[in-house]
Amino acid sequence: MMLESWPTLEKLADLTKMPHAWLEANAAASRIKDVAGFEVPTDRGKFGVIASANGVTSVLFPGFDDAEVAGRLSRHGLGWGTTGRRRALEAGIELKGYLGGEVKAFSTPVDVSHLTPFLQDVYGALVEVPWGATVTYGELARLAGHPTKARAVGTAMHRNPIPIFIPCHRVVLTGGGLGGWSGPDGWKEKLLALEGGAPRVRPVVAGARGAKTNRRSLQTRRTR
After folding, report:
1. Which of 54, 91, 125, 193 could crosslink 108 through cysteines, CB 3.0-4.6 Å?
2. What digits encode the pLDDT tens for the residues 40-72?
3. What one-character DSSP code corresponds to residue 135?
């Protein structure tokens, strides 16, 4: 089995006691990025969450298998370890709350440090798009600091390894159509419905932070 089963409440409390700073320091000493993962049972099916000590690196939808998990790790040069367990558990708790309609903003950071600078810019801009809002591909390109790369932004949405936490379901076509995304068919509609109904462009507040700030925010947000 590639991912660990979701722990009991007693075990969960024990696993989330380890200080983040200690875990991050130990992970930094490893040559290969150390990640851990858990199966996350929800009312909408069993998801998978993988994280490093610095944040979430992958989210998998119901129906995933060991081959998909192994492919995620191999594609991004990740290796199994233990320092990411606390982040993975915290992400799983928030994912459960989100799918239950109780969590509208995530405090667990995402870790995209192993991805390209362009993807870091795009995903950094996208995490600033709040629950209940949507943007077009062109708008997201501008927010990310790459106004001429709307098509490349679409490719980035298709390749997003951390859907929901990096909310590619909130990116829609200019005319209001769904557009593509990285998750399974049907789930983009479900997530948009969870956040308030049919897709329509509800832009983020003017003056959103630029690409450099967004990229940095992915790596510095901390769970209290």
Report:
1. 91
2. 999 999 999 999 999 999 999 999 999 999 998
3. E
Asked if 123 contacts 166 with a C-beta cutoff of 8 angstroms, the reply is yes
Would you say 156 and 119 are in contact if contact means Cβ atoms under 8 Å apart?
yes
Check if the beta carbon of residue 202 is closer than 8 Å to that of residue 134: yes
Are 161 and 186 in contact by the 8 Å Cβ rule? The answer is no
Residue 110: helix, strand or coil by DSSP? strand
DSSP 145-170: T-TT-HHHHHHHHHH-SSBTTB-GGG
* Domain spans in the chain, listed from the N-terminal domain onward: 9-99, 117-220
Q: How far is CA 121 from the centre of its chain?
A: 14
Answer yes or no: are the C-beta atoms of 5 and 39 closer than 8 Å.
yes
Looking at 3.50.50.60, 3.30.70.20, 2.40.110.10, 1.10.10.10, the CATH number of the domain 117-220 comes to 1.10.10.10
DSSP 17-85: -S-HHHHHHHHHT-SSEEEEEEEEEETTEEEEEEEETTEEEEEE-TT--HHHHHHHHHHHTEEE-STTH
- Positions annotated as catalytic residues are 168
pTM value is: 0.81
